[in-house]
């Protein structure tokens, strides 16, 4: 009965997606940023990759597995202009409940800056920040189906402007181990603000409906991934004619339909190469990022591309990713994955009946 209720809930969620808002019209847009190096290397969004990296389950609870008991992901990053990002996530398997749980936090610190009034008088310093704290639970149905949900508490603080909200993710995954492929469907960031920013009206959260499939070749050490996102709205283009004219872009006398462009703005492609069982090399391409960050009549280099490497030791995984943005500006991300039972002992604090 509980499984039927879960399916009905998921169908209700899909029926309500038309009411959600896109892009810059939403609040808490930091929720859309990649939290782990492997996800960054895969193009920024991936919900189906076949991996033992619990960090990917932060964005799709259906990727949680029983084998991820005590797995922990820790990421420490520096963005531009002194912005810091910290991420941690850990899993726990409860065998009597046949459920895998996980808890995580993603925190952004924007450094210290002067706080002023409307006249420019300095009132002091403020330390703006954003964070999300979330708890996930996942179960298996039959041999191939996995489903999970995530509950989130979100908070933003920019001086006197503060806001809090709650949200939920729901995901379903089909994993065919015999033919080495996995497919997932996820509805993300369904929720609302509990407290609005001072002087502002209520805003929508950055809802996203995502579909992904990953296939690992049987006779070659390669895995391919195709991810579709923002499926609840086909046309995500924004054509700023004034901006285009200022940059010398040509204007057509007839309006184009841009069917090809509109479709591929929903597509992220990725490939992962396995060098033995110790090294993973990853590359991704985000078409939407490239189109939105490209400058007309300028060299845009590797905009939209990303790459990364993972070194997988027995007790620790070390991951690094590099993604490219405007004018070949790049962002580097580092992370560590480890299993706490390897350090505290399988008979210690983190052991539960049936876990090995």
TrEMBL record:
Keywords: Signal. Residues 1-19 form the signal peptide. This is Type IX secretion system protein PorQ.
């Amino acid at each position: 009965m509980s499984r039927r209720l879960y399916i009905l809930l998921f169908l209700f969620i899909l029926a309500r997606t038309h009411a959600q808002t896109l892009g810059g019209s939403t609040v808490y847009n930091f929720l859309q940023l990649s939290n782990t190096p492997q996800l960054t290397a895969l193009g920024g969004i991936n919900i189906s990759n076949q991996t033992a990296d619990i960090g990917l389950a932060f964005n799709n609870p259906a990727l949680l597995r029983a084998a991820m008991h005590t797995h922990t992901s820790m990421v420490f990053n520096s963005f531009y202009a002194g912005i810091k990002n910290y991420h941690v996530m850990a899993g726990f398997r409860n065998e009597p409940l046949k459920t895998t749980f996980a808890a995580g936090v993603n925190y952004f610190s924007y450094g210290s800056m002067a706080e002023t009034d409307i006249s420019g008088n300095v009132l002091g310093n403020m330390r703006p920040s954003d964070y999300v704290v979330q708890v996930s639970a996942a179960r298996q149905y039959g041999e191939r189906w996995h489903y999970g949900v995530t509950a989130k508490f979100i908070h933003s603080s920019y001086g006197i402007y503060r806001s809090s909200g709650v949200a939920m993710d729901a995901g379903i995954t089909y994993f065919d181990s015999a033919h080495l492929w996995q497919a997932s469907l996820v509805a993300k960031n369904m929720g609302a603000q509990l407290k609005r920013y001072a002087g502002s009206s209520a805003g929508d959260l950055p809802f996203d409906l995502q579909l992904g499939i990953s296939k690992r070749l049987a006779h070659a050490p390669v895995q391919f991934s195709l991810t579709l996102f923002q499926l609840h709205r086909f046309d995500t283009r924004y054509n700023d004619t004034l901006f285009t004219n200022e940059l010398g872009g040509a204007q057509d006398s007839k309006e184009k339909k841009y069917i090809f462009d509109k479709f591929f703005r929903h597509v992220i492609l990725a490939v992962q190469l396995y060098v033995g069982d110790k090294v993973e090399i990853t590359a991704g391409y985000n078409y939407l990022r490239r189109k939105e960050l490209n400058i007309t009549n300028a060299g845009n280099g590797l905009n939209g591309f990303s790459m990364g490497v993972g070194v997988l030791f027995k007790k620790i995984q070390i991951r690094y990713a590099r993604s490219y943005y405007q004018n070949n500006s790049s962002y580097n991300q580092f992370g560590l994955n480890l299993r706490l039972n390897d350090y505290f002992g399988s008979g210690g604090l983190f052991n539960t009946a049936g876990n090995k």
